[in-house]
Amino acid sequence: MQNRIEHIAIIMDGNGRWAQKRGLPRLKGHEKGARAALKIVETAKARGISHLTLFAFSSENWNRPREEIDGLFRLLERFIDEEVNRLRDSGVRIHIIGDLSRFSKPLQDKISFTVTTTEANTDLHLAIAMNYGGRDEIVRAVRSLVSSGEKPEGIDEKTFSARLDTAFMPDPDLMIRTGGEWRVSNFLLWQLAYTEIYFTDTLWPDFDERALDDAITWFRARQRRFGKTPEQVEDGMP
Ligand code: IPE
Ligand code: IPE
Ligand code: MG
């Protein structure tokens, strides 16, 4: 039996190297990367995926040069301005995960506009991770539990998950990291517990429809065991 796939999460890595290889400034790689992301959103929707999470800016990316950070945020704002209406009309519901409190008021306003303007859509839930870090998310969830006065006995995996930024989504079935690095870089630490992880050397701007299909094909052939033996899984034990 083939695995069902509801949620794909992607670490879109390799924009800088894509540009450097061509003697271009890193920002050109990010521009090309944004276009690749749009195409992947369309493809995911066409393949019937209901949830897609894209890692756009990590809580550690503030360590980059000011100029690159500014360029990335300009790009993000442009992306919102130019693409939100089209995404809304194509049935995509946009969510933003991460700690948004660090953003300027105009950017926060733009983000809430994006979220509310697409909130009636149901075809594809697109979560964009911005100023997102898995550890930071867990700490914020703990704070929210503590400040709500939750008793220790009331805390379990379910109530904890409900405090995470991703509370509205199932855990990812497949996580893809482009750009040749084999690490998680603080992405969805809690949610990846049983996710199948696919690493590819392809740099993000080159990651196209076919590359996504290859990852999905790889995923479909995995045997997901959730702690059972291979035989138990083959026998279809619940
Ligand atoms: C990923 O590409 C995009 C962001 C982190 C915003 P990089 O910018 O990390 O590209 P490389 O890894 O330096 O090539
Ligand atoms: C992870 O890529 C973050 C995003 C893709 C947004 P990085 O390029 O920041 O990861 P490291 O620093 O190489 O681990
Ligand atoms: Mg990188």
Short descriptors:
238 residues; alpha/beta; Undecaprenyl pyrophosphate synthetase; six-stranded parallel beta sheet; 8 helices; 6 strands; 42% helix; globular; binds 3-methylbut-3-enyl trihydrogen diphosphate; binds magnesium ion
Short description:
The chain has 238 residues and is an alpha/beta fold. The protein has helices spanning 15-21, 26-46, 66-89, 105-117, 134-147, 157-161, 209-220, 230-234; strands at residues 7-11, 51-58, 92-97, 124-132, 174-177, 196-199. The protein has a single domain (7-134, 171-234), classed as Undecaprenyl pyrophosphate synthetase (3-Layer(aba) Sandwich).
Biggest sheet strand line-up: 3-4-2-1-5-6
Question: How much helix is in the residues?
Answer: 40-55%
CATH architectural arrangement: 3-Layer(aba) Sandwich
Write down the domain tally: 1
Q: Enumerate the spans where pLDDT stays under 50 for 5 or more consecutive residues.
A: none
Amino- and carboxy-terminal Cα gap: 14 Å
Largest sheet: 6 strands, parallel
**What's the SSE pattern?**
EHHEHEHEHHEEHH
List the ions, cofactors and other small molecules found in this model: 3-methylbut-3-enyl trihydrogen diphosphate, magnesium ion
